[in-house]
Amino acid sequence: PMQAASSGLSFEHLRPSSVSPTFLHTNALGHTWAFGALAELIDNATYVGATQLSIDVVPKNDDKIGSVPSGYTVTEMQNPSLVLLDNGPGLSRDGLHRMLSFGSCGTTSGRSTRTCGSGFTSGAMRLGKDCLVFTKDGQTKNIGFLSQTFLFDIG
Q: How many other β-carbons are positioned within 10 Å of the β-carbon of residue 113?
């Protein structure tokens, strides 16, 4: 079972990915430019039919998602979060797992995926070491976590 080495916590109730953190890092290097990785995430949103997309940078320890307010110090802007919010159709639990896994081809909203799930994971891991995805499919809400930090911690 998955277990965090430093905390002794057990994560056997989680549906794990079989991707190593080293592979996540190496695959992310395919995006030589951070804006190319961001473009990949924007492309994914529009491909499934999103007509609205907001992109925000949120300083660490800020409890509000929105435009970065003026007056923040350089220290407060270290390790900010990048937040993308779209009005796309959302993902089911299985769809979310496929998106966070490499090499899983399938369909989204009746359209076949173009790159079998590698665009999101490589783009997200180029922009940061951890990614939290909130999605809603009908009345079902799902959360996905793609994290080099967590995978290194559980060994």
A: 20
Backbone angles phi, psi at 141, to 5 degrees: -105, 135
The pair of structure tokens assigned to 14 is 């989680």
14-43 pLDDT, tens digit each: 666 666 667 676 766 777 788 888 988 898
What is the SS3 assignment for the chain?
CCECCCCCCECCCCCCCCCCHHHHHHHHCCCCCHHHHHHHHHHHHHHCCCCCEEEEEECCCCCCCCCCCCCCCCHHHCCCEEEEEECCCCCCHHHHHHHHCCCCCCEECCEECCCCCHHHHHHHHHHCCEEEEEEEECCEEEEEEEEHHHHHHHC
Given a cut of 90, whether residue 52 has pLDDT beyond it is yes
Placement of tokens 């496929």 in the chain = 98
CA distance 93 to 115: 19
